[in-house]
Amino acid sequence: MAGDINNVGQSGLSYVDQLKQLQDKSKPDETTGKQDLKQEDFLSLLTKQLSQQDPFKPVSNDQMIAQMASFATVDGIGKMNNQFETLNSSMTSNQALQASSLVGRDVLIPGSTGVKTGDGQMAAMVKLPQAVDSLMVRVENQMGQLIRTFDVGSKPGGDSRVVWDGKDQNGNPLPAGKYNVKASGLLDGQAKEFEVSTYANVNSVLLGKGDGNVLLNLAGFESPVRLAEVLEVGKA
Asked: What is the stated purpose of this protein (predicted)?
């Protein structure tokens, strides 16, 4: 019959006290960060305490089995967590490998700020709740100054791609840099602003800092964008 493992044994210390002492001795090394306390240590303490049990205060075998099962459960959870970490690392690596095919391609990301490169164009996507007769597009610089307005005509409801040719109102090419694209139109006789997303070119792909995210470095953007935020991938 198993004894109460919380009782004080011949050593004068309870099982809990001995466990605390062992935990203090097995704190992670500051240089290696390793933890030496394992399930075997807990079982060793339990066995030692049982050998010093008080025969006048026994407990049932069911309680003993429950205590052993608790150790096994904790160990199993630890192993399962390690397996999940390995699986997550593998999935992240696979995502990064797949995302590497995006390098050099355009992706659609949330936000009305896009990057114009050289004398080229800049594309955006406008989300329309319903069809509009006249979709007006405004292009502003980073200072908020209006530099171009143009009408792209009637558009059906849904996503509509619009392209700015990179020129100002007088037809002069503008320098490379960031520009804001805004879109508006009449819905039920009232002027409405619509949600705009912009395209950006992928420079490189990198893994997140242990958080399982795959990040994309985009041309003209200081901060990377999570792969999960990409709304659309342009054609190769």
From this structure: Required for flagellar hook formation. May act as a scaffolding protein.
**Domain harbouring 172, CATH code:** 2.60.40.4070
d(CA 124, CA 114): 8
pLDDT in tens, 92-126: 566 666 667 888 889 999 999 999 887 688 999 99
Is residue 76 domain-resident? Answer: no
- The number of angstroms, rounded, from the C-alpha of 141 to the middle of its chain's C-alpha atoms is 31
173-190 per-position pLDDT tens digit:
999 999 999 999 998 888
The residue range of the domain holding 186 is 106-199
Using DSSP, state whether 178 is helix, strand or coil.
Answer: strand
Please report the DSSP string for 66-116 in residue order.
HHHHHHHHHHHHHHHHHHHHHHHHHHHHHHHHHHGGGTTSEEEEEBSEEEE
Classify residue 83: in a domain, yes or no: no
Residue type, 208: G
CB 154 within 8 A of CB 141: no
Residue 92 lies in a domain: no
pTM of the model: 0.58
